[in-house]
Amino acid sequence: MSQSPAARKLVLGIPKGSLQESTLDLFARAGYSISVPSRSYLLGFDDDELTGMMFRAQEMSRYVEDGVLDAGLTGYDWIIENDSDVVEVAELVYAKQQLRPVKWVLAVPEESAVRKVEDLDGGIVATELVNFTRSFFAKRGLKVKVEFSYGATEAKARLVSGIVDVTETGSSLRANGLRIIETLLTSSTRFIANKQTMATDWKRRKIENIALLLKGAIEAREKVGLKMNVPRKSLDAVTRLLPAEKSPTVSSLVDPDWVALEVIIEDKVERDLVPRLKEAGATGIITYPLNKVIP
User: What span, in angstroms and rounded, lies between the C-alpha atoms of 17 and 55?
Assistant: First the structure.
């Protein structure tokens, strides 16, 4: 017996902790409103086919693999750490601070004599990424004791031989007087799904549609829309200023001597481009933020 649309429920996992706010913001940009009760891990969606729970990113892939969740967002690092057998639906490059992957790095105090990975042979390293770190040293043929760190790993760097910690920019490590020896792993957020879930047609389509919208929201975060009116005689001069890979939309106006032009550009070029467009003859220039850009 097929499931009625009203009874359909796809269970999503949203990461609790450092990625929580950026993930909720990403879903909002993708068009989903998620309510987070203050005393519950259960989430409310403005989509009758969705329900959800909050888990730490470190454990998300295990719950997806076991079928507790149909799909969820977590880091590639934790999928590797848990050795989880899940379907990777999409890579979503966003983090707590910036649109860039994070890195797990081996770091030591500035005053340490350690200059390369081999110098840690026989030493002790503290990290939250225990399994991966043990495997890393074992592949190098090094005998390093890897201890689990219950948070505040940077503070332990002077109590052990070194630490393996996650960073976006490295600024916090430098502020704590630590020096990076080597990058062990580069990780980004992944939208993952349970294998059995992906074998169910409507759930697979639903998950793929969500992934499409999430990727569109990420794509839009560093872009703006640009509108302007341009005299026909200046159209060539204005379009030559636009990024070469962008093909603007040009529409006729009531006045046959003028056209309306619209294009999407990188927000980092906007401040330099707009004055030049004005000089080339464009008027009524409007820039506006975007929620989603779907290729």
Answer: 9
